[in-house]
Amino acid sequence: MADKVDEKTLQQTSTWAVAVVCFFLLLFSIVIEKLIHKLGTWFKIKNKKALYEALEKVKAELMLMGFISLLLTIGQNYISQICVSESIAASMHPCSESEEAKKYPPKKKDTKNDEENSGRKLLELVQSYIPRRSLATKGYDKCAEKGKVAFVSSYGMHQLHIFIFVLAVCHVIYCIVTYALGKTKMRRWKRWEEETKTIEYQYSHADPERFRFARDTSFGRRHLNFWSKSTITLWIVCFFRQFFGSVTRVDYLTLRHGFIMAHLAPGSDGRFDFRKYIQRSLEEDFKTIVEISPVIWFVAVLFLLTNTNGLHSFLWQPFIPLVVILIVGTKLQVIITKLGLLIQEKGDIVKGMPLVQPGDHLFWFGRPRFILFLIHLVLFTNAFQLAFFAWTTYEFQLENCYHKTIVDVVIRISVGVIVQILCSYVTLPLYALVTQVSSTHIYTHT
């Protein structure tokens, strides 16, 4: 059996190898920095102020993660020297005792080498006084000599360091995917906006002298039915509507008309591009979504805490974002239907196009931005879980204590993809549309 060989220091390493590594690290960093700068310049040229501010927030989050990574590098020796008792260290492990014993069997004593090992004790004692940082290696547990266990080992700090990098990459990817899917959904609304410029639309929809029953209008036929009278059936129908035509032509045109009547001067119908306005509103919302608030960081820490044996977090964690986003999507559909019910409450006869009235009371706690916070929370926790899955697979192979079987892996990935598509393509554009009928909304874009 070959003797253990310590890794070489930089004094024992070729200078050309050190120079090559540093060159490519600098080259990669400079290229990324220039690309981000070019993207920011393009946003300024295109007058996309909200997207530029969102890019700045992404840069700030990456800087924060980089600072965390730096603290891990500097503090890993000091943290690994914090010793705790074995009873405390044995609590809340991701693996059960049997799994841990199987994956990490205790090393057997080699009696033949006892004499040789004792001869090396003096050398190890001298080396122990020389501080040495081993970021990417499995070091010796210095706490074992005291009969204790390291709070977090140096190698564990290294693995956490890799997780921070994976999380940063996933954060950037989910930001890009979220914005791209939202913009893709809104492209479908372009033909509806172009329709409002035609004479046929002005005659059939915008005629102010046309009287009809509220339930006979296109908006009324969609929302004023027997199921809308009961809260239970209303939520059931609205739950399924978010999957099949979450934003229909009649809903878009009715909310557009209500927004114009509430915020613009009379006669602006044919000149105002409501779709472009919502796109800019989406960019403003996107600026909020890319920022990671302290509350959301705290939720991420809770997710890490629950990855312990016995809680079976791999079975229920992926479904939390799914349940939340389904409730949010249902609530937004309920708001649209209740706008129709408010029209009918004012009278069975409507003059011209049905006019929805803005009102924050339709939103939870009277705060439309609370829904945006939930969407933000769902997107980050979903990206966090996918990053955690990628990291655990890289560090501990596909089947590990964090996801036991292939079925668990398939469920986690499938639910993560479904949540990302549902939230970015369905719920976020729907929120950007519905929030225009809030009474606190202020028209600020030109």
From TrEMBL:
Similarity field: Belongs to the MLO family.
The UniProt record lists the keyword Transmembrane: yes
Protein name per UniProt: MLO-like protein
Keyword Transmembrane: yes
Signal peptide: none
This protein's GO CC annotations: membrane
Entry note about domains: The C-terminus contains a calmodulin-binding domain, which binds calmodulin in a calcium-dependent fashion.
Annotated coiled-coil segments of the chain: none
Matches recorded under InterPro entries: Mlo (IPR004326)
Annotated localization: Membrane
Biological process, per Gene Ontology: defense response
Pfam families listed in its UniProt record: Mlo
Primary location group: membrane
Keywords, in A-Z order: Calmodulin-binding, Membrane, Pathogenesis-related protein, Plant defense, Transmembrane, Transmembrane helix
Organism: Brassica napus
Transmembrane segments: 16-37, 58-79, 160-181, 288-307, 319-343, 370-391, 411-434
An MF annotation (GO) of this entry: calmodulin binding
Superkingdom as given in the UniProt entry: Eukaryota
Known role: May be involved in modulation of pathogen defense and leaf cell death.
Topological category with respect to the lipid bilayer: Multi-pass membrane protein
